[in-house]
Structures are given as structure tokens and as C-alpha cells.
Amino acid sequence: MRLKSEQIIIVLIVALPAIFAVLTGGRFLSTYNVSILMERFAIFMLVSLGGTFVIVMGSLDISYTGVFNLAGYMTAIYAAQYGPLAIIVGLCVGLLFGGINGLLFTKARIPSLLVTLGTLGVSQGIVNYVGGGEAMWGLPVGGRLDFLLPYIFPNLPEKGITLFAWAVAATLLCFFIARFTKFGLHTYAIGSNEEAARLAGINVDRHRTMVFVLSALLAALAGILNVPYAENATAGAASGLLFITLATIVMGGTPLSGGRGGPHRTIIGVYILVVLLDGLTMMGVGTVELQVIEGIVLILAMLSVIRGSKTTQITT
Amino acid sequence: MKHPKNNSQRYFPYIMNAVLIVGLVVIFGSLNANYLSAFSLRLIVRNLAINLIVSIGLTFTILEGSLDLSVAEVYALSAITTVLYEPIIGPLVLVVSVCLGLACGLANSLIMIKGRIPSFIATIGTMMIVRGIAMWLSGGWFIIMSAKTMNPVFAALTIGELIPGVANYILWSVMIFGISIIVCFRTRLGRRIYAVGSNYTAARISGIDIGRHQVMAFMVCSVLAAIAGVLVASRSEGASIGLDTNILLPAISAVVVGGTSITGGQGGPHRTLIGTLALTMLVNGLNMTEVNIYLQQVIYGIVVILGIALTIDRKKLKFIR
Fold first, then answer.
1. What letter does residue B238 receive in the DSSP assignment?
2. Which of A103, A190, A250, A314 to mutate to test the interface with B (most CBs of B within 10 A)?
3. Nearest CB to B116: which of A120, A123, A311?
4. Does some domain include residue B321?
5. What is the pLDDT at residue B33?
6. Is B308–A110 a contact, with Cβ atoms under 8 angstroms apart?
7. Is B102 in contact with B64 (CB distance < 8 Å)?
């Protein structure tokens, strides 16, 4: 089963762009569309990285879209007064919500899905409240945060390329953390066997809180970077990404049961999803149909990965 | 039926809700003299009625130990089909909606059971699919119907007043509440749903067909959400995909605040009634004291967390994930 899904993934990676290239008469691989693909990849990747750590640990964090929106919006507001220093506000939002998530999860002992469902409502409510009706239309930020996305590649003047560079850097960092640090090792240990991790002397509660903080910080970073990229801040900037990111993480090969997978696997999931959605859009599939397809992809992703994993009882 | 360790644990949700309701009456009553006026109370009952139907449905899946996150979308889709097809087939839209609910519940539970996927993930998948269908059918618009041109039988069923001054959707709510109480406490189905929720392994060993009861619980949940959708479309004379935004979190909050444990097997529709009442009174109070609608979302988030923290049965969760 394991080997089979690996093979399917390799085939998908090669075949999907090839199929779309043929079906769209080569337009799919045009420079313009590849740059679009890279931008979308960057956004999805930045949003999915934090969640990957939490899922490797065996928990779930669905508050990231709220944190993304709130961090982006707050940064945009404060950028008007304090300029570059405003990103500190955005990162503090991440720190705060990550801390709240982690503490409610470990100290109040509430399942992480429900904790983060609650904090999702809280963070999204705050950004809606702060923004009022304006937030729906977007808060223009001018060029105040453009220093985050400098034109590092003179020959490629697109902001999206710099965003892609950010995503690559963040992914490499996360991969390094996951694979080569004690922090990463402990995350995998807790995910594969909590009791064993505890007996091995890992401070499980503290580590979990830290992973939730990391997740929220990454979500906040994505939210902040999205502001200069989109050139405005809206209250619902990331809301459409809420559940599809779960699909990218799981599809890549990080099962919800925890202990396996990691940021490097999420690259695969994000790649397949971005290619699929972009290719379908180019073929003229509407947003409504895409939504249905996203739902089906999510279920299929879960089916392909969860089968044969260690969960015995299927409940919340 | 159940044998709680002690009475304080058993009565805790009631005490908590009583304190909450009394507190709300005192706070909002002093802030706004009209809080306890007949008009305000009628408003509370009106708003309570339809939310209660959705929350009771959700209670069944939570009792059984799962979570259905697709209720809001089923509710919106059912409202949309009601507006679209009521002019053509009249009161038969109720049948359409019930079938819709049955199909969604069946899909949810089969994906969960056959695919061995946790229920909240399976229902997120169907939620996205149902939402797509609802968008497609409504074209993303707010579509309207009029009480004046409504099929008379359909109008009588939903917004007519069998008892003068009490719209029939309130009677629907009362009836559904009554039936759900009977199902929960006087039938084998209800008893077994509790058994599955309170101890999955024990239920399986004692020969209960777990899958069947999970399917039933999910079907009840989706059908009730669909019926609520019909009633809300008829009451507000229109529907849109936007109906889904303010249902899921309030419904989950109502269930857990009422004292039905998210871990399953504890609680029931009677507690959900109390939870829904407390939350409806809270929302009504917030509206009457002109609290920003977005702040209410924040308050809901906090209420969900508090409700779960206070009612969850931690003994059942060896590991909290």
C-alpha cells in the first residue's frame, strides 16, 4: 500500500503538467503561467508549513486562516504609522494565538481541533471587528511593506518570484528544523507515541505549546507577506484556504495520525494541488466546480493516506 | 441510563446554564429595560426555534462520538432548493429536502466508516462539495420567494399559524424536540447511539452494529439540518449560500454549552435545548445592547472553548490530540 501510493505520487508529479500542457496546447507551460504557478505554490506552501508540524505531532491546527488574516490586517494598519516595524505587530499576533492554542490544548486539555475552531472564530471575529466593513474591500497599503518583497532577481520583475523565494527559504528552514534539530525529533516522537515520548523524558506539554506557537508564527508570516504581494489587506484573504491546506498536507504524505511525513512531503501535496487547480482553471472549469473538485480531492487524499494507518477508532 | 460518579457532575451543566441565563437576564435586563418585554421574548423564541432543530441534529452525531461539520452547508443548500423548487412542486420540496438530508448523511457516514476517515475530515470534504452545489444552484445570488405567491399548503405548513400568534415552524421545532427526546430515551436506537458514543469497544463487543448506528446518527443530523433549511427559507422568504456562515459555530456551542460532551455518550437533546436557549438569549442581549456583530463572533469563539473545556469527559481521552 505504501509503495503503491508513492508510485501514484511520482506518476502524478510528472503526468499532471504533461496532461495539462497537451490539453491547453502548451499554454500551461508558458512563462506567464509558470510564474502564476510559482506564486500560488508560494502562498499555499507558506500556509501549509506550520500545519504540517502540528499534524506530524498528531494534533490539528485550523486557526491559521484567522491568524493569517489578522496578522496581515494588523500589519497593514500599523504600517501606516510605524512602517517596517509593523511586522512586529503581525508576528506578535502569531505568537499570541499560538500561545493561546498551545496552552488551551495542553493545560485545559481540549482536543486541538476544537481549541483551534474556537480561536479561528475569535481571530476572524477580531479582524472583522477591527476592519469593519472596510476590511471586505481591502485596506490599500501603498508601497509601505514592499521592502518585504524586493526585486531580488533583476531579470524577473515579478513580486511573486520574491514570494516564491520566501517560500523556498521557509521550507528549507522547516525541513532543517524537522530533520536535524532536537525540536524536530521531539515533534516526531510525540506524534508517533506520546506515552513513549513522555517516558523518554520529553516535556510533552511544553513542546506541544512550542509547536503551536511555531505554526501560528508561520501563519502570521504568510499573512504579513501576503499584504505587499496582494497590495492590500482584507479580512478574508486566506479564508478560502482553510480546508484545502489540510488536503495538501495529507496528500503529500503526512497522515493525521502523526509521527510521519514532514515539510518535504508537503511540497509534493502543494505541487499536485496547485497544478491541478491551475490546470483545471485554464481548461475553463469554473470556481463553483473547482470547489466541488477540492472537496473530492480532500476526501480522496484522506482515503489514500489514512488507510492502513494506526487509527483504530474513528471519531472526532 | 447512565451512572455518573456523583450528582454534582450530573447536574453541573444545568447549574452552569441556570447561572448563565440568570446572569444574562440581570446584565441585559439592567442595560436595556426591554430585554424582558414580550416582543423581545417572542424574538428569542423565533430565533431559538430554527437553531434548535440544527443543534438537535448535531447532538445526535456528537452523542455517537463524531462531529458533523457539514450541517451549515446542508442547511443552506436545502434553503436554496426550497426557494428554487417551491414554485414548481409546492409542499413536496419538504420531501426533496429530506431526501437531500438523507443523501448527505449517508455520504458523510459512509465516507467516515468505509474510508476509515475521522468524521470531521470526511464532513469537511462533503461540506465543500455541498457548498459547491449550493453555489451552482443559486448562482451565488440571494434568491427570493414571496409569502404572497407561496403555495398555500407550503405556506400553511411553515409560516402559517395553527395557534394564533405562534408560527408553525415553532411547532415544528417543538415536535422535533419531542420526537428526539423519545428517540433518545425510549427507543433501542437512542440507547445504542449512547452506547456507541460512550464506549465504542464495549458497544462493538456487546454486538451492536456500530456502523448502522453511526449512519443513523448522521442521517438524523443532516435531515434535521435540511428541514431547518426549508423553514428558514420560508420564514425569511429567500435563501443564499451566505446562510451557512452563522450556523455551525452557534450549533456546536449550543450543544456543548448545554452539556453534551464532545467526547460522546453524555448529554442529549434536553441539554441542547437549554444550551440553545442560553445562547439565543446571549445573542439577543448582545443585539439589543448594540454590540458589534463581529465582536459577537469573537464571543462565540470564546463560548465554544469555555463550553468544551467545562463539559468534556477527560477520563475518556487517554491522549488529547
1. E
2. A314
3. A311
4. no
5. 84
6. yes
7. no
Pairwise CA distance, residues A5 & B250, whole Å: 39
Q: Please indicate whether, in this complex, the C-beta atoms of A316 and B263 are within 8 angstroms of each other.
A: yes
Q: Which residues contact A33 (CB under 8 A, 6 or more apart)?
A: A27, A278, A282
Q: Is the pLDDT of residue A288 over 50?
A: yes
Classify residue B6: in a domain, yes or no. no
Q: Which CATH number fits domain A2-15+41-306: 1.20.1640, 1.10.10, 1.10.3470, 1.20.930?
A: 1.10.3470
pLDDT per residue as tens digits for the range A64-89: 899 999 999 999 888 888 888 889 99
What is the least distance, in Å, from the CA of A30 to any CA of chain B? Answer: 30
Which helix (H) or strand (E) element contains residue A30? Answer: none
Check residues B5 and A166 and name the one with the higher pLDDT: A166
> Using one digit for the tens of pLDDT, what is the confidence trace for A138-167?
666 766 777 787 776 666 656 778 889 899
- Cβ of residue B312 closer than 8 Å to a chain A Cβ: yes
List the single residue in A with minimal CA-CA distance to B137: A288
Average pLDDT for residues A21-35, to the nearest whole number? 86
* Mean per-residue pLDDT of chain B: 87
Structural domain contains residue B16: no
If one counts the domains in chain B, the total is 1
Q: What are phi and psi of B166, to 5 degrees?
A: -120, 110
Task: Determine which of A72-81, A128-137, B28-37, B52-61 has the lowest per-residue pLDDT on average.
Answer: A128-137
Highest mean pLDDT among A35-39, A204-208, A304-308: A204-208
Name chain A contacts of B117, Cβ cutoff 8 Å: 299, 302-303, 306, 314
What CATH number is given to the structural domain containing B126? 1.10.3470
What would the grid cell of residue B108 be?
A: 458523510
Contact state of A303 with B115 under an 8 Å Cβ cutoff: yes
Provide the CB-side half-sphere exposure for A97 (13 A, CA). Answer: 35
Q: Which residue of B has its CA nearest to A258?
A: B321
Cα–Cα distance measured from residue A128 to residue B299, given in angstroms and rounded to the nearest whole number: 13
Number of Cβ pairs closer than 8 Å across A and B?
A: 162
Structural domain includes residue B5: no
pLDDT for the residue numbered A157: 57
C-alpha cell, B236:
425569511
> Can you read off the three cell numbers belonging to residue A148?
518585504
Cell 507577506 locates to: A225
pLDDT in the model for residue B277: 93
Q: ipTM of the assembly?
A: 0.78
